[in-house]
Design a protein that fits this description.
Distance between the termini: 38 Å
Number of domains: 2
Largest sheet: 8 strands, mixed
Shape: globular
Radius of gyration: 21 Å
Structural class: alpha/beta
CATH superfamily of the largest domain: Mur-like, catalytic domain
Number of helices: 14
Helix content: 25-40%
Number of strands: 17
CATH topology of the largest domain: UDP-N-acetylmuramoyl-L-alanine:D-glutamate ligase
CATH architecture of the largest domain: 3-Layer(aba) Sandwich
CATH class of the largest domain: Alpha Beta
């Protein structure tokens, strides 16, 4: 299969990132994914795995774990989702995204296996996940860091046998918000825990900790009790943090990421890697890794004068963190502008309130360029309901120009909401 044939076949598969089934867990099963991986020789079982889930902070934690492991000299395979601009971003080895030739090759390998074993059509995410696991085996990685796509128990990634499982937190996303939703989400995320793995848990709510702890594992480490942030100060270009873990203390480490919440992610990431090695890490390793880590699309500054900031805040907890970070880390004297695009399946008014849209001089709403994009006019109504001043401009690039033309050098322009919106504008904003 050539690149065009492979891409066409992938695009024809059902993609639950586009057609969601959020909150619907009845009837889900991992059997199709297990059968697919078995047909490929179970490549996901030939290397150690760190498996991570959580409502927010997964992507940042994965990048920090990857940086720490690579600084220790390991060849690391990293699987994340969703992507910003190209599917290649999801599959990385040694910090580099898979190239088009290798991506075509591993996708073709998966499709040949589907055909040869006459398997039912897999989903888009199952195929890409399988391709990642095949690529990591081909590349003989020392360890794979695998991010869950949704929840955990029935996620396609949950065919791995993790050495370390990590849960960042439990918040409202991919759920109807009805009933005991936090407990239900915690149970589903806890599904990545296996008897032979060590668990690192960033969620400290007692009720949720008890739910997660009901899953048998070799060892549990919980934020607050076993690891935590000791000091978390604003610094130029990031944070100055001190952390304690079960094995060591790390003082005055520069973390090259914005947002006080990133210290919590750093504490979890550091504990995960310590647990993987069963050893404390050298302070030089931690300083080098955290001092150079990058997380595209998460509080990412892509331009100065005016400052253009990208953040994939797409649920109320993430929006609250973004609002707090803007107040704490970005004390510019100028005005704030916001470009917002969202996909359906979430409450836009709740997100706008969490984002404090009334603090922005102007919000431009766009229609996210996906089948699920909320109409710019409807989203503008949500902004106004939450106390903000909104101009609907359907096309994302036109919405960006609408705001940029009003910005002065000391202003801040934030692009937030759907990752699809961020991806559509990232190159444009960075290339100003």
């Amino acid at each position: 299969m050539d690149a065009a044939e492979t891409q066409a076949r992938l695009d024809a598969l059902i993609n639950y990132e586009v057609v969601p089934r959020a909150g619907a867990i009845d009837g889900l099963t991992l059997e199709p994914m297990r059968n697919l991986m078995a047909s490929l020789g179970d490549p996901q079982l030939v290397y150690p795995v760190i498996h991570i889930t959580g409502t927010n902070g997964k992507g940042s934690s994965v990048r920090m774990i990857e940086a720490l492991l690579q600084t220790m000299g390991l060849r690391v395979g990293t699987y994340t989702s969703p992507h910003l601009e190209a599917v290649n971003e999801r599959i990385r080895c040694g910090g580099d995204a898979i190239d088009d030739v290798d991506l075509t090759e591993v996708l073709a390998t998966v499709f040949r296996s589907v055909d040869g074993y006459e398997l039912p059509n897999p989903t888009w995410f199952e195929v890409v996940t399988a391709a990642a696991f095949v690529h990591f085996a081909n590349e003989a990685v020392d360890v794979a860091v695998v991010e869950v796509g949704m929840l955990g128990r029935f996620d396609a990634t949950n065919v791995v046998e993790a050495n370390v499982a990590a849960i960042t937190n439990v918040g409202q996303d991919h759920t109807s918000g009805q009933g005991q939703w936090r407990a239900e989400i915690a149970r589903e995320k806890a599904g990545i825990i296996t008897p032979g793995c060590s668990l690192v848990l960033g969620e400290s709510d007692d009720e949720l900790v008890q739910i997660v702890a009901s899953e048998p594992c070799e060892r549990s480490l919980v934020r607050g009790a076993d690891f935590d942030v000791v000091e978390n100060l604003l610094a130029v270009g990031g944070r100055l943090i001190s952390l304690r873990t079960p094995l060591a203390s790390y003082d005055e480490v520069f973390l090259a990421l914005h947002g006080a919440h990133q210290a919590d992610n750093a504490a979890l990431a550091l504990t995960v890697v310590e647990t993987f090695f069963a050893s404390a890490l050298g302070s030089d390793v931690v300083s080098e890794a955290f001092g150079s880590v990058e997380v595209p699309g998460r509080l990412e500054i892509v331009h100065r004068n005016p400052t253009v900031l990208l953040d994939a805040a797409h649920n109320p907890p993430g929006a609250e963190v973004l609002a707090e970070t803007l107040d704490g880390d970005f004390g510019q004297s100028g005005r704030r502008f916001l470009l917002l695009g969202m996909q359906d399946g979430r409450d836009p008014v709740a997100l706008c309130r969490a984002l404090r849209v009334g603090d922005f001089h102007l919000v431009a709403t766009c229609t996210t360029p996906t089948a699920r994009g909320i109409d710019a006019v409807a989203l503008a109504d949500a902004v106004r309901s939450a106390g903000g001043n909104a101009d609907p401009v359907a096309d994302p690039e036109a919405a960006f120009d609408h705001l940029l033309n009003q910005c002065e050098d000391d202003d801040l322009l934030v692009i937030a909401g759907s990752i699809s919106t961020i991806g559509a504008l990232r190159s444009l904003a960075a290339g100003l």
